[in-house]
Design goal:
The chain has about 325 residues and is of the alpha/beta class. It has 2 domains: about 35-240, P-loop containing nucleotide triphosphate hydrolases (Rossmann fold, 3-Layer(aba) Sandwich), CATH 3.40.50; about 245-300, no CATH class. The protein is about 35% helix and about 30% strand. It is built from 10 helices and 13 strands. β11 and β12 form a beta hairpin. α4 (about 125-135) runs antiparallel to α5. The radius of gyration is 24 Å and the shape is globular. The chain binds adenosine-5'-triphosphate. Adenosine-5'-triphosphate binds near residues 53, 54, 56, 57 and 58. InterPro entries: AAA+_ATPase (IPR003593), ABC_transporter-like_ATP-bd (IPR003439), ABC_transporter_ATP-binding (IPR050763), P-loop_NTPase (IPR027417). It is found in: Cell membrane.
Length: about 325
């Protein structure tokens, strides 16, 4: 497997002025990223999450060559991000949800054309990638609209396209679905899912919308106070906090002797089981109950488990 992103002891400190007494302010050094180790292989779809101020954007800025690390080292596509920033720019795509890489007064089509010249993309490759994005992201309706007149959802689709036209190996996405309505969110997620399924592009995604992560990322890196506090699958996070699937049976009438292991709710009309492994044996037992009206399987809630992780970290 090829490692496309590697960071060791990555650290970024900022000097900030803080209040010290009624009138005095003093300088203090804060570590926004406090020693992050990360290895990402080609084709991975990595969710990089954490509470507000955890250091996600700062990490991404160091990996994309926008910020110089205070300590540690990073390589992306074999390049050191800041000194080799220009070469790196040809190999990566970046979407910062809050900022635009498009020309505000130009129609989307012209922005795409300018990017082709800037990145010196062969015309045929550019046309093929644009065709794919136009199809998957439904761009045709607003290709001739100036960027400033686009809705947020339309602009985000344009941003994604702009980030991909030069055929990057790694795509960094900082909150790509922020502020989008459910339909646009689905369009962006399904586009990214298609992109990731190809296995050629590596995705690093930061978001506060955990549905993005559930839909797209098998691996989750959680940072808090600038440090990695979880690196593994979503399932591993559930296992760490003991969250389990629930099988819920709604009954027409209470049963005299509830099956073993059931928690009885709703005046005896609801039976709830938590299951560790396959749910089939529990479902089979419930299916035999004559009073069974409905059966639901509830997956462990990612919001809940991530909240527990954030809360467990406390103050630095
Ligand atoms: N240029 C800067 N100068 C001083 N402090 C900064 C600067 N940029 C970021 N910070 C601080 O570094 C910490 C991490 O910020 P960062 O933007 O990386 O967090 P984040 O995880 O992306 O947060 P959010 O989810 O709110 O976007 C915060 O405490 C922030 O105030």
């Amino acid at each position: 497997m090829t490692v496309v992103i590697e960071a060791r002891g990555l650290r970024k400190e900022f000097t900030v002025r803080v209040k010290a007494g009624r009138l005095r302010r003093e300088k203090r050094v804060v570590a926004a990223v406090a020693g992050v180790d990360l290895r990402v292989e080609r084709g991975e779809m990595l969710g990089y999450i954490g509470p507000n101020g955890a250091g996600k954007s700062t990490t991404l800025k160091m990996l994309t060559g926008i910020l110089t690390p205070s300590a540690g080292e990073a390589r992306v596509c074999g390049l050191v991000p800041v000194p080799q920033r220009t070469r790196l720019a040809r190999r990566i795509g970046v979407v910062f949800g809050q900022r635009s890489q498009l020309w505000w007064d130009l129609p989307l089509r012209d922005s795409f054309d300018l990017l082709r010249h800037i990145y010196r993309v062969p015309a045929a490759d550019h046309a093929a990638r644009l065709r794919r994005c136009r199809g998957l992201l439904d761009l045709d309706e607003f290709m001739d609209t100036p960027v400033r007149q686009l809705s947020l959802g339309q602009r985000m689709r344009g941003e994604l396209t702009a980030a991909l036209l030069h055929g990057p190996e790694v795509l960094f996405l900082d909150e790509p679905t922020i502020g989008l309505d459910v339909v646009s969110k689905q369009a962006v997620r399904s586009f990214l899912s298609d992109l990731g399924a190809g296995g050629d592009v590596t995705l690093v995604l930061t978001t506060h919308d955990l549905a993005d992560i559930e839909r797209l990322c098998r691996r989750l890196v959680v940072i808090d106070h600038g440090r990695v506090v979880h690196d593994g699958s979503i399932e591993a996070l559930h296992a760490r906090y003991g969250s389990r699937r629930r099988v819920v049976a709604d009954l027409d009438e209470p049963v005299a002797a509830p099956p073993e292991g059931a928690v009885v709710e709703a005046d005896g009309r609801r039976l709830v089981f938590t299951v560790d492994g396959p749910a089939a044996p529990v479902i089979a037992r419930l299916a035999a109950l004559p009073a069974l009206r409905d059966l639901t399987i509830e997956e462990p809630d990612i919001e809940e488990v991530v909240t527990r992780l954030y809360l467990s970290q406390g103050a630095p």
